[in-house]
Amino acid sequence: MKSVQDLANEIVAREGGYVDDPDDPGGATKYGVTLATLRRFGADKSGDGKVTEQDLRGLTRAEAAQIYIRHYYYGPKLDALPEAVRASVFDMYVNAGSNAVIVLQRLLNRMGESVTVDGAIGPETIAAATRAHGAAPDHFADAYGIARRNYYYALADARPASRKYARTRAGGKGGWIRRAEEFISPRYHLSEAQHRARVSKWV
């Protein structure tokens, strides 16, 4: 498995530079880090006693990666999950917060485990994930990736402003879907026709 530093560096690269998209509920981001996140976990880079958009604009790739490693990987205890799903859960945790764990917990319940769906990784979730991976070692990561992809489609179903993240202007797979499929075996990727059928009812 890649090191957590390598995984964090890849996430920073996926997230891109400074973006202020009015359709993003999280507001302005740099390398995926929001101003709210920087205020919680970052530093006053300008030295004016406040963490502002100026500090966000000055965030470096290395600083963003360290925020992710400390607060989005070790903080929620992703390191205690089976290795097969750590990278995908980590990537989604950066992208969607504790929803990444909720998706995992709902999957575990569908796989026959009995897990509280609370978005937190504790002994119950760790044990259930370990058992589920042991029962289906060749499929667990794909099952999580598919559940993640379904989460994004459902989110776009419910929130029209988010559809541009799941579908390109030309109708192809948007960033959310491509990102989820980076962690799914190619044989389980949706074809372009399947994707277009899935989003055909969107305006």
What does this entry look like structurally?
The chain is built from eleven helices and three strands; from the N terminus they run H-E-E-E-H-H-H-H-H-H-H-H-H-H. It has 203 residues and is an all-alpha fold. Among the domains are: 75 residues, no CATH class; 57 residues, no CATH class. A three-stranded antiparallel beta sheet has the order 1-2-3. The longest helix has 19 residues. It is globular. It starts with a helix and ends in a 5-residue tail after the last helix.
Give a short overview.
This protein has 203 residues and is mainly alpha-helical. Helices cover 56% and strands 3% of the residues. Helix 1 (4-15) packs parallel to helix 5 (83-96) and helix 6 (99-110) crosses helix 8 (140-158).
Draw up the topology in text:
Elements: H1 4-15, E1 18-19, E2 29-30, E3 33-34, H2 35-41, H3 53-57, H4 61-74, H5 83-96, H6 99-110, H7 123-135, H8 140-158, H9 163-166, H10 175-181, H11 192-198
Distance between the termini: 41 Å
Mean pLDDT across the residues is 94
The percent range for helix content is 55-70%
Poorly predicted spans: none
Helical region count? 11
Main beta sheet, described? 3 strands, antiparallel
Q: Cα-atom Rg, whole angstroms? A: 17 Å
Q: Which sequence of strands runs across the widest sheet?
A: 1-2-3
Topology order in helix (H) and strand (E) letters: HEEEHHHHHHHHHH
Q: How many strands?
A: 3
